[in-house]
C-alpha cells in the first residue's frame, strides 16, 4: 500500500513539517502496539511528531475539527494501552527541553525527555529527581502513574514531584497548574476518566545528593517483618530511599540465567534464612541510626 496525500495529512504537515507527519504504513505499524500483553494491536491512521507546545495546540484543534481521535505517546513504554488509537498518535519525542535552575532546585523538562536522560544530567549537577524506570518519559510517568519509586518514601509521589505542569487540554487550550483559574486536574476520582490533556512541559523538583550517601541491605526471615521495619523507617523519616525486596526479585536480578536464579534463591532462603531484604539509601547519619534499631 502506497501512502497518498490527503487533506488532513497535508494540514498536519503544515503544522509540524512534512518530515514529521505521515500516513505511511511502514511508520504507522511501529505505533500499533505497546508492551501491554492484553492490548490489541491498533494501527493508527496518522503519526505526528510536534516540536513544541504551540504545535500540540494546533494539532489538537485540527483533530477536533476533523473528528479524528488522538492519543499521546511518550517513549512507548506504557503497559496500559493508553498510547493506542485508530486515529492520530502524537509522539512527543522531539520535545527536548531540559533547563536546570539549581538555585531553586527545579528543572524544566519537555515531554520527550526520558527518566534516564534527566537523572544523568541531574547527577552531574549534584542532584537527583524522583523518577521511575529509566526508559520511560518522565512526564509520561507523572501523567500515568504519578511516579513511585524507592525514593517516594522521602520525596513523595504524585504532585509532590513537580512545581508546575503545562498542559494542552482536549480543546487545544493552554493550561498551567500554577494559574489561579486553572482546573483542579489532580482531584482524585474513583472512576475511569478521559485524558485531561497533553502535558508538554513540567517544572520538576531537584533533590540534593550528599557525598556520604551510601546503601545498606537489612535481612529478614520473612516479608512481614521486612515490611514492618520499612514502615518504621518511613515513620521516623530515616532513609532517602526505601524498598522491600523479596528473594525471588533479588535472585532474578542478580542472575544471568534461570538456573542460577533458582540456586541463588535457594541460597538466600535455605542456607542464609533470608526471606526478604530492606534496601535503605541514606547518608552516614541514617545508617548510624539504623544500627541502633531493633530488627
Task: Report on this structure.
There is one protein chain. The protein is built from 10 helices and 14 strands. It is α+β, with helices and mostly antiparallel strands and 295 residues long. The strands form 4 sheets. Strands 5-6-10-8-9 form a 5-stranded antiparallel sheet. A 4-stranded mixed sheet has the order 1-2-4-3. The protein is globular, with a radius of gyration of 23 Å.
Please give the structural blueprint.
Blueprint: H1 7-16, E1 21-22, H2 25-28, E2 46-48, H3 53-66, E3 70-73, E4 88-91, E5 98-101, E6 106-110, H4 115-124, E7 127-128, H5 138-144, H6 152-155, E8 162-169, E9 174-176, E10 197-205, E11 207-208, E12 214-220, H7 223-235, E13 241-246, H8 247-254, H9 258-271, E14 276-282, H10 284-291
Helix pairs in contact: 1-3, 8-9
Question: Notable features of this structure?
Answer:
295 residues; 31% helix; alpha+beta; single chain; globular; five-stranded antiparallel beta sheet
Q: What percent of the residues sit in helical stretches (DSSP H or I)?
A: 25-40%
Q: Helix segment count?
A: 10
Largest sheet: 5 strands, antiparallel
Mean pLDDT: 90
Order of helices and strands: HEHEHEEEEHEHHEEEEEHEHHEH
Mind telling me the C-alpha Rg?
Answer: 23 Å
End-to-end separation: 66 Å
Q: Shape, please?
A: globular
The total strand number stands at 14
Spatial strand order of the main sheet: 5-6-10-8-9
- Estimate what percentage of residues fall within beta strands: 15-25%
- Give the structural class: alpha+beta
Unreliable residue runs: none
